Amino acid sequence: MTQKIMWQPDANQVAATRMTDFMNTVNAQANQQLTTYDDLHQWSVAHSDQFWSQIWRYFDVIGERGERTVVDANKLPGAQWFPDATLNFAENLLRFNDDHMALVFRGENGTRQQLTYAELRHEVAALAAAMKADGIEPGDRVAAMMPNCIETIIGMLATTSLGAIWSSCSPDFGVQGVVDRFGQIEPKLFITVDGYYYNGKQLDISEKTAAIRQQLTTVERTLVVDFAGFKPQLSAGWAHWNEYLDRSSTELTFTRMPFNAPLYIMFSSGTTGVPKCIVHGIGGTLLQHLKEHGLHTDIDRDDVLFYFTTCGWMMWNWLVSGLAQGATLLLFDGSPFYPGPEALWDIAEQEKISVFGTSAKYLSALEKADYKPAESNQLPMLRSILTTGSVLAPESFDYVYRDIKANLCLSSISGGTDIVSCFALGNPALPVYRGELQCRGLGLDVQVFNDEGQTVTQQKGELVCRNSFPCMPIGFWNDDSGERYFNAYFARFENTWAHGDYAEITAHNGVIIYGRSDAVLNPGGVRIGTAEIYRQVEKIDAVLESIAIGQRWQDDERVVLFVRLREGVQLTDELQQQIRQVIRANATPRHVPAIIAQVSDIPRTISGKIVELAVRQVVHGETVKNTDALANPEALEYFRNRPELA
C-alpha cells in the first residue's frame, strides 16, 4: 500500500536545493546524466571513491587530501579512506571569522547568550592556549560533563584544534554512569559545571563532581564553568573557566592530523554492560556531516539550526557540525516542557529557527498535551523539522502537518552513535510520505536483508550497509584485536555492516523502521517490530506511552504490553478491551498482547530511549548489568515479580 504524500516540494524548490546543485556538479565533472535522487544515490554507491572525493571538493574541505581516496574499499572492516590526507576538525568548523551569529544559547531559566563567529574563534583561541600550556597534546582525551551551552562547544573546538580527543556526557548522569564511561578513556582534562537547571529546579552537582573526580585518577586539571551561580570554592588542580582562559592569546593555530585520527569517543547506552567506547575519526565525521547538513538538510548561512539534545547524545555532535556551513546554532538546555509545552516553540518564534530538530517522543508528548504551535506561534522561517531517537509514528506526521505547519519538510532520520550520523534521512528535493524516512544517505549502500542474507524490498528485515564509508568507527577504545568491534557490526553477515534495526525499503525507496531488531517480538515464530504496537496503543488518549516485550511462555513467546496512563486513569477491563481492539483492527491478531499491565513509569536511557531489553531481563528474573545507564533506574521495579506474569 502506497502511503499518502504529506508534503512535496515544487519544481522551483527542488531546483534551488544544494542537492540538485550537487547532482548538476557531478553530471558536469564526472560526465554523468543523473536526473533523479535515485540516480544520484546509485552513482554514489557504485562509485563511492569518486563520490567522497566530490564531497571533499564540493564543500571545500580545508586540509591536504593526498593522492589516494581509499585502500581496500571492499573490506568491512578494514577499508582505509583518504589514507594520505591531513586536516583539522576545528579548522573546518571555524572557517568563518566574521560578525555573523554563530551560537545563541537559551536556558530554561530565561538566560540568553550569543557569540558571533569572530567572537567564537577568539574564545576558542583563549581556551586552546591555556590547554596547550597545561600540556594537552594530540591524542590526549578531554572529558566533559556539561549542559548544552556555549562553553561546551568552545571546549570541543579548543580540544580538537590541538588534535586531542573529545568525549562528553550531560550533568544528569550518575557518578557510576560517568565513571563507567570516562574511566575507560583516561582523560587528562575534565570540564564540568557547578550545577544546572531542569524543570524549574536549580541543581548543585559539586558533591557528584568531587566523587567523579576522585575516581578519574588520570585527570590532571578540572575546569569548572559557573553555569548555575553556585560559585564553588575550588582546591588545587581545579580552576574556574574564566580564570583559566588565556585572554592574551588571540591567534588560533590548528594541528592537522591524519584523516583517520580519533576525534570523538562516544558511548553505547550501556544497559547490557559497561558502555562500549566507540571511536570516531576526524575526516569521516567531517565529510559525513558536511553531506548530511549541506545536501540532505540544505543548511546554509541563512539558517538557524536547532536540535533539542543533551551532550550525552550523538545529536549534539551532529548539531555542532552545523558551524561548518556557517549557520547559526540555537542551543537550549533544560526541560522542553518548562514552564509548559510552549517552551521550545516560543524560542523557535523569537529566534527564527528554520530547522527544528527533536525526538519522536517529544512530538508525541506535545500532541498528548494538546499543544498546537500553529495556533499559538508565528513560524514563518520554519522550513524543516527533523526527528530521531525512536520511530516517528505515522500519526505524528499527521500532527506535524495539521498542528505545527503544513508547508515544511518533515524528515525522520535514523542512524546512531555507532556512525555519529544517519543511514536513512531527509531530502528537501523529495516528497514526504506518511510514516516513512525519505531516503537512504548518499554514498551508503543501505539495504534490508532477510534471515538468509538476501536483499529484499517491501519486506521487513535487518537494516544493513553493504559498502564501506568514511564515518565507520575507527574501532572501540581498548579493543586492540578489533574483536569486539567486529562482533558488534560484522559478525552476522559477511563483509556487511548489520545495524540492528528492523526495517523495510518501500516501493519508492523510502525507509520504514519498525524498532530495534534485538527487541523484535516473535510470538508463534512471527517477527513483529515493537513500533508497530506502540503506534496503535498511543493513539488512545488515556495512554501516555507504552513498552512491549516478549515473555518466554510454554515453549513459545507471548507479547506483554505495559502502559503508562494519564494521571488518575486506571487500567480497567474496558480500557484493556479498547487497546486490544485498536491493535487488532489496525495491525494483526498476532500483534495483540496476551497481557496488558499498568506501570507508573517506563525506564529509559539518559538520551530518552525506552529499554525493552532491560525490562525483558527484569520480567525473566535476570540481572540488568548496568542500571547507571538509565535516567530512571528505579522504574525497573515496576516490572519485577508481576503477579499477572507468573
β-strand number: 34
Terminal CA distance: 40 Å
* Model regions low in confidence, pLDDT < 50 over at least 5 residues: none
CATH class of the largest domain: Alpha Beta
For the residues shown, what is the average pLDDT? 94
The biggest beta sheet reads: 7 strands, mixed
Indicate the proportion of strand residues.
15-25%
What is the fourth-level CATH superfamily of the largest domain? Answer: ANL, N-terminal domain
- Tell me the overall shape: globular
SS element count, helices: 20
Structural class label: alpha/beta
- Output the strand order for the largest sheet: 7-6-19-18-20-21-22
Number of domains: 3
Please give the share of residues in helix. 25-40%
- Indicate the radius of gyration in whole angstroms: 24 Å
Pfam families: ACAS_N, AMP-binding, AMP-binding_C
Domain AMP-dependent synthetase/ligase: 95-467
GO molecular function, one term: ATP binding
Family: Belongs to the ATP-dependent AMP-binding enzyme family.
How would you characterize this protein structure?
The chain is an alpha/beta fold and 646 residues long. It has three domains: 5-88 and 260-515, ANL, N-terminal domain (Rossmann fold, 3-Layer(aba) Sandwich); 101-255, Rossmann fold; 519-645, 2-Layer Sandwich (GMP Synthetase, Chain A, domain 3). It is 29% helix and 24% strand. It contains 20 helices and 34 strands. Strands 7-6-19-18-20-21-22 form a seven-stranded mixed beta sheet, sandwiched between helices. The protein has a five-stranded parallel beta sheet with strand order 9-8-10-13-14, sandwiched between helices. A hairpin with a 4-residue loop joins strand 23 (414-416) and strand 24. The mean pLDDT is 94. Residues 540-609 form the AMP-binding enzyme C-terminal domain. One of its GO terms (biological process) is lipid metabolic process. Keywords: ATP-binding, Ligase, Nucleotide-binding.
